[in-house]
Amino acid sequence: MTAELVRGQNHPLPDTRLEIRVSAGHPVVAGAALGDERGRVPGVEWVAHPVAPSLPGVDVPRQAAADQRLAVDLAAVPDAVHRVSVLLALPVGVGGPTSFGKAAAPFVAVAGPDGTEIASYTITGLDSESAVVALELYRRQGAWKVRAMGQGYEGGLAALLGDQGLERPADLAASILESERARHAPLPDPAPATATHPESAPAAESTPAEHRTAPTAGGPISYAHPRRRTTTPEPAPAPAPQGSQAPQGPAVPVAGDAAGWSMDERLYNQVWGMFEDLARTAAAYRSACDFAESRLDRELDEVLSDYRARGGGANDAARAAARARHDELVERAQEVLDRDLAQLAVESEVVEPALPPAYARWDNPVWHGYRPPAEEPMAVRLGDLHLPERAELRIPMLVRLPMERGLWVDSGRGRSEAAGLLDETELRRLALDSAVAHAARLLAVHPAGGFAVHVVDAAGAGAAALAPLVDTGVLAAPPARGAAGVSAVLEQLTERVDLLQMALRNGAVDALPPGLDAARQLLIVHDFPHGFDDRAVTRLRYLADEGPGVGVHLLMVADRADASAYGPVLDPLWRSLLRLTPVPDDHLADPWVGHAWSYEPPMLPPGSRILRQVLAQVADARPAKRP
């Protein structure tokens, strides 16, 4: 999992070959400075920048862009190098923002050689600074780590380089920024065109969309969201001089357009990328708005404390200017947010219809051609996630298989507004319906005979909702009723967990009984704690803690308030389960970016019989039991 760093926080680097990814939303110049043990840069030859982009172990881009990639091989840097500082600066005279405070916060990520992100950092808190040390890769006791810096400089790139210990830093800064300004200078009018045979004109090379960069020599800068593609065409540039290569337009999103060995893995990675992009673009927007508010408060306080501005209308003018700066920043942040959300919506419209059954909604036509799979997928969809910035943009909530923890469908009211509108009976019915849909999907995505479901319904109150599982014959046994039935099922699964754990600990898996069912097991517990005595509760807690490690999982359908008599004894049980709800609820916290994601349970189309059809296919494909 990617470590979301805050300023000053460090994180170990498991690899020496790295890619530094910068997403700023506006052009930035990226560079790297190599420092010694004291962190000082001995000379200009230790700085990689667009004019001199390559140093041993470091390669930086040759021009400013909103999306930058720096290649770093820490094993190849000189032995005298103990620190690699990633530098960002705003180009001068190209029409972009003049300070980082006037744009959305830059985002920086460190990725390993396989593309997996190791750590990331959103650089917040910048105001009038036009250059910043974003990250620092440093060597400590033979191991490399990354530290989030976010050190900005109002004096720009010259002040930053001077702080790195360079002599005459202004000269190097001027050469870097001047080279960038020259790239964007208007081209002279081309000479009058002469007749040229078509075959003598140089052919334009086609470049894969994922490798396209902003064109040089006066071409337009692409402000497209990094890692996302869009169908919205950009304004056509002016005709290029004869013989030059015409810039290529943006590409349409493609389902499965992500890294992976199989289509299943590529689609999983693409959905995960969409989730990350939505989280980051919302975090950047909220960060920009928070910064705009704090800056406005600070500026208004300064105006009120300046007694010299109280007369002659200067006070009112200063307040109006402060509010205008606030509104401008919020408006720009909103524009970036709207652009990114629109691009994500386009990608979602392309990806959603292409998802396989394990990742698809119940209303996806793929279910009508369902056949039991030959192998287990990477993940399973348990619902949808969205944020308030655009509630209609839903990201599939995919949970990796095999599951590392059990599930809990909360039939209580909690703090959900949607649950508050329903009576207790209806809420409990929806909870069990949701649990049955989850169980059906888990059965459907596993190979035939690879997943078994047990049900505990002590009072028999869930007979109607459990009918699809019972009628199609996919259950391992009829639902257990009464205290005796509860005890028997729990004893059977507890013994299974004990036996498998013993075999694994002693390396004696081959010695397991030949008739032992090798399928993963799921226990649905309805109406807890009805029918449970203290011994049954202890066994249930044991299954929740130890079962997932050997393929035994829980699916609880319960209201926590019903078990309040047990007090804190059951707190570890609830915490060990992934809480889901039968109605929309914003209870899923994301500690990395501070979001509270709204969860939408999987819903079957009204009147649809697809659930029973899928379960019938599962039952028909199961191997016959041995006599």
Number of helices: 11
Distance between the termini: 47 Å
As a whole number of angstroms, the C-alpha radius of gyration is 30 Å
Provide mean pLDDT, rounded. Answer: 83
Helix/strand class? alpha+beta
Major sheet characteristics: 12 strands, mixed
Portion of residues in helices? 25-40%
Low-confidence stretches: 186-250
Shape: elongated
Into which percentage range does the β-strand content fall? 15-25%
**What would you call the quaternary organization?**
single chain
Kindly state the number of beta strands: 21
Summary?
Helix content is 31%, strand content 22%. It is built from 11 helices and 21 strands.
Write up what this structure looks like:
With 627 residues, this protein is an alpha+beta fold. The chain is built from 11 helices and 21 strands. Strand 17, helix 9 (534-546) and strand 18 form a beta-alpha-beta unit. The chain is elongated and about 85 Å long.
